[in-house]
Write a structure and sequence with these properties.
The protein is mainly β. 7% of the residues lie in helices and 38% in strands. The chain has one domain (43-396): Distorted Sandwich (Beta-galactosidase, Chain A, domain 5). A hairpin with a 5-residue loop joins strand 2 (55-63) and strand 3 (69-73). Mean pLDDT is 92; it is low at 1-37. It is found in: Cytoplasm. It catalyses: alpha-D-glucose = beta-D-glucose. InterPro entries: Ald1_epimerase_CS, Aldose_1-epimerase, Aldose_1/G6P_1-epimerase, Gal_mutarotase_sf_dom, Galactose_mutarotase-like, GH-type_carb-bd. Its main location: cytoplasm.
Length: 397
């Protein structure tokens, strides 16, 4: 990243004193606590969170009025923390993240985690950093085993987005916008993207993605939050149960590019059609698990002919009773179990993250779709709009 060291110094200076200001509008800390938010209408507040290249970064805190609170940065559209109550009302932060902007700016290279970020222009992998479109071959920076991952070396997760607050009745929204110039990271067309986070009084976080282009391009947006429903300060998620409503998944080659085969999950460690502990089969002697060091695959959601929101997955922590239900308009879901987190990252609570610290549920089109004509298309044309919705609904039982 150009000027990376300078940006990190600027961010460090801007983040000074954040510990003092970080709780000015909250009733519990980002790492959880027994205090819960008083019932009331949803609300939103903001505060400075450092700078990137002289551009201020703002942190927004959205409260549901029913015990849930989410903090979102204009840098990368990052969900920095997401606090929800358990079955007895104890509040914990259930996503992985860094306590300051410096943590995100320093998180680069092969160890990059993309904690909580908006991913674009193209989430997941594109083989060898190239794809054909309208008779042209486009080349992207490669940053993962010779492939392009999550939009390249400076994807949407590294941008400062323009923010607008939207208030209305039983919900509050934060609308983020970024205009990606033609040729950025090798992608054709100027892409205008908005991502709107909406939190309502039912403790549902809705993410609406919208984009337009002035030339044919490819697009695959998602959010890269890592969940730990027991609280981000706990060791791992292996005892938490997951159900993924998909009869098939996409096997990959050794560089984690889909082979093109759509394979049944039945009789394999990839069968989450009923609630199954994440750790139940993660160490099985399966070639796909061995190459990814765990789960890092795309499931083909059972959609039938439904083009609207469908329930794609559910996760539950048996100890706390917290439950996450994921609904989406997307055809795929990338389930990743923090296989390459190695104990070098310190989270919002001061806890060190290790392998298995969280899991992602990245709703998206399939990886490498531009190179697989049989996959659902990710091409966007000037006379079209890209629209996608995902809902993360939290409860406790």
């Amino acid at each position: 990243m150009r000027g990376k060291r300078l940006l990190q110094l600027i961010a460090l200076a801007g983040a000074t004193g954040l510990a003092a200001c970080g709780n000015t509008t909250t009733n519990s800390t980002a790492d959880g606590g027994n205090a819960s938010t008083p019932a009331g209408p949803p609300s939103i507040t903001s505060e400075p969170f450092g700078q990137v290249g002289g551009t201020p970064v703002i942190r927004y805190t959205i409260t549901s009025g029913h015990g849930m609170r989410v903090r979102i940065l204009t840098y990368g559209g990052i969900i920095q923390s997401l606090e929800v109550p358990d079955r007895i009302g104890h509040v914990d932060n259930v996503v992985l993240g860094f306590p300051s902007l410096v943590g995100y700016l320093n998180n680069t290279g092969s160890a990059k985690t993309y904690f909580g970020a908006i991913i674009g222009r193209y989430g997941n992998r594109i083989a060898k950093g190239s794809f054909p479109l309208n008779g042209n071959e486009y080349h992207l920076p490669t940053n993962n085993n010779g492939n392009s991952l999550h939009g390249g070396t400076a994807g949407f997760d590294t941008k400062v987005w323009q923010a607008t607050q939207l208030n209305g009745g039983d919900s509050v929204s934060l609308k983020l916008q970024y205009v990606s110039p033609a040729g950025e990271m090798g992608y054709p067309g100027m892409l205008t993207t908005t991502v709107t986070y909406t939190l309502d009084h039912n403790n549902e976080l809705r993410i609406d993605y919208h984009a337009t282009t002035d030339a044919p391009t490819v697009i695959n947006l998602t959010n890269h939050s890592y969940f730990n429903l027991a609280g981000e300060e706990t060791l791992d998620v292996y005892d938490q149960k997951v159900a993924i409503y998909a009869d098939n998944y996409l096997p990959t080659d050794p560089t984690q590019i889909p082979t093109g085969r759509i394979a049944p999950v039945k009789g394999t460690p990839f069968d989450f059609t009923s609630p199954t502990a994440i750790g139940a089969h993660i160490t099985a002697d399966d070639p796909q698990l061995l190459l990814a060091r765990g789960y890092d695959h795309n499931w083909v959601i059972n959609r039938g002919n439904n083009t609207g929101l469908v329930e794609a997955a559910r996760a539950e922590d048996p100890k706390s009773g917290r439950t996450l239900t994921v609904s989406t308009t997307e055809p795929g879901l990338q389930f990743y179990t923090s296989n390459f987190i190695d104990g070098t990252f310190t989270g919002t609570s001061g806890h060190t993250y290790r392998q298995g610290a969280g899991f992602t549920m990245e709703t998206q089109h399939y990886p490498d779709s531009p190179n697989h004509p049989s996959f659902p298309s990710t091409t966007l044309k000037p006379d079209q709009t890209y629209d996608s919705t995902t809902v993360f609904a939290f409860s406790a039982r």
